[in-house]
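Z., the sequence and structure:
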Amino acid sequence: MAVEWERIGQPAFDRIVEAVVHRVYDAASRVEAVNGRGGDDGIDIKVSHGSRIRVFQLKYYPDGFPTTSHKGRRGSIKASFTRAMRGAPQEWVLVVPCVLTPTEQAFVRSLADGLAVEVEVEVWDRATLDDLLAVHADLEASFTRDQLFEAAKVYGQERALLMGGVDDVSARVRALGGQADGLDDHWTIDSARQGDTVVHTLRGKHPRAHEVSPVMFTLTGIGPLAPEQSEAVRHSLGYGLDEKVVLPRGAVEKVTVTGPEFLGRELENAEVRWGPAKADQPAGVEADLVFLDGDQITASYPGTLKHLGLGSVGRSVRMELAGGRLQLLMPENPQAAASLTFSFSLEGLEPAAALRVLRLHQRMAAGGTFEVRTGAGAVGGGEIPPSAEAVYRDFAQLQLFLEDLEVVQRHSEQYFPVPDELTREERIMVRVARLLADGHCVVCPFLPEVRLTLNGRDTPTARALLGGEVQPLHLPCGAFPVQIAGRRLELGPVFVSHPEVAVAADSRGQTLAALTAGRGDGVEVGVRPVGGGRFRLVLQRSPSGSGMTPVPLGLPGFREPH
């Protein structure tokens, strides 16, 4: 059913054209319907897209503006055009509910003649409007259909047998949805049945529905709320944070819905849920967390801007970084304190990435000026007060472990995430391995004895050692592996040494007798440092001159081996 343009009158005509313009121009454009038709600016509807301005002039002339009658109409059109040109638009569109004659078309086109600036002049006539309404059929339905009659027809069909099975169900659901689309120019509802419950979801027909026809929910008698509920409400409403809020039955006395007529109602004993509104900036925008000393950037960490919000109290920013998450709440009141939360997890990160997260945490603990920046500029920031010294102590051992593990992984060329748990012995061996990889000599606390296999040669040194004399030991050993979190990391060949070693008394005589009898080849003997010490290790390919003087392990709370 087409719109009967000659009968609808000026108010309905204006309303239809406004609805059509909102549909035609996407969310990237700004549509403004100017109150007071024929105002001083000669603008009824203004569409802005960046710096480009398009002006619509609405004239309800069902029978056109011929020269033989209605002689004042052409003057009115020209006057409106002249006023609109003061704003220097790039396009000017005359909208009329009739089909223009060639003479009328020529008149409109001539309006731009002699202008110092170039402007495109167009006409939306009845044919254009009918075509646009055909594309947006729900608009046409909302202006032309008798809703009660159509709804009654659909209801009558629902009472009939569904002889066509699922196909009939689908057809009737679509038909009912079509009727719902005609309830309002800007809003519709999507309905779903869940058991005996029918769920209605409000949906805007175009991106500016909330601006043109706002829907408001008023909650009366809120409380008492649990602390976590109060905090969620404060974050969501006060700062526009993208958190879901659930107020259970009993927490709200009454919910009042105002807006389009078909939505207006009051609800009691209702559970209220709301989620985040659409962000001003799309999720996934690249961002940097930068630290500043004046205008100088002292550190920068890359991440992703996940949310920008605005509420009644202030703004919110949420940024995700590798292994961390930053949340910033900034009140509009400059006297009120902002809130910064930074949480992090090393799960799934290799040591190098985990170190960067830890350094970021330490940077924040040190305090100072920071900003969250995108390609469009800063979206938030502030001043962080320095943390207590205890914060640094808490993370010193973790940083040392990550640095050790990163060096060992790089040395062995075996990369894996930071283990969730390590035994005390594994932690010590990571430290030993790191010092070896750095070219140092280390006392290995888990090496109290070395087992030697004799080759059968009877030498003075062998006899002296088996005879109980203290001797220095410096032996090459094959690959030296360490076990970390179930992984075997090869460090390479090492030298095992100690300045004073001896053979245990209970194995000297028997071993010496076997050597004297020529049966010493293949016999094993245990050698230990004198005084209960431990053997020293150094990688065979360590820089020359590193020597066999051990360096301390330097692990807090661990007694140095000797």
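The first strand starts at residue 30 and ends at 33. The two ends are 98 Å apart (CA to CA).

Let me know what you think.
H.
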